[in-house]
């Protein structure tokens, strides 16, 4: 469509879910668009999306284990604050730790460049779990 100069119909104002953080603060891209994992809890991807409802906009954060394609953590809220993404991460860590006693020391957590994923509380929680953060380039999400 881009080559032909045509676009799809857009109704209403576009919603922006990724507020890009400063490039100097970003972790490296450890995934390089190779979205496959040799075992569970080796690669998780995280992203945010939004849904318009009769009550207004609702935002959803997801954490997916790439090996099984299973949603291991999620959260829904009416805001885009760090708590939204952090609650989804907490669910993923709890579920994997509680259900299987998983060791997350080999985990790579990949996300886009959104400020929610680069917030101090989020990156500290990843480090506490033993995971390594990875941040993709623009338009790089698996979801």
Automatic annotation (TrEMBL):
- State the Pfam families in the record: rve
Record field: transmembrane: none
Q: Return one Gene Ontology term, BP aspect.
A: DNA integration
Integrase catalytic domain residues: 36-143
What PANTHER family does the record tag this protein with? INTEGRASE PROTEIN, TRANSPOSASE INSF FOR INSERTION SEQUENCE IS3B-RELATED
- What molecular function terms (GO) are annotated for this protein? nucleic acid binding
Q: What is this protein called?
A: DDE-type integrase/transposase/recombinase
């Amino acid at each position: 469509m881009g080559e032909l100069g045509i676009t799809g119909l857009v109704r209403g104002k576009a919603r922006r879910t990724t507020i890009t953080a400063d490039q100097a603060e970003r972790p490296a891209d450890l995934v390089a668009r190779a979205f496959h994992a040799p075992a569970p809890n080796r690669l998780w991807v995280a992203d945010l999306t939004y849904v318009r409802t009769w009550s207004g906009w609702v935002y959803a954060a997801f954490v997916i284990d790439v090996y099984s394609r299973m949603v291991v953590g999620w959260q829904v809220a009416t805001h885009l604050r760090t708590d939204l993404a952090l609650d989804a991460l907490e669910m993923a860590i709890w579920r994997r730790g509680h259900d299987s006693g998983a060791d997350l020391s080999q985990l790579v957590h990949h996300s886009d460049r959104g400020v929610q994923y680069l917030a101090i509380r989020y990156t500290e929680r990843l480090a506490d779990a033993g995971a390594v953060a990875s941040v993709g380039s623009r338009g790089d999400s698996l979801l």
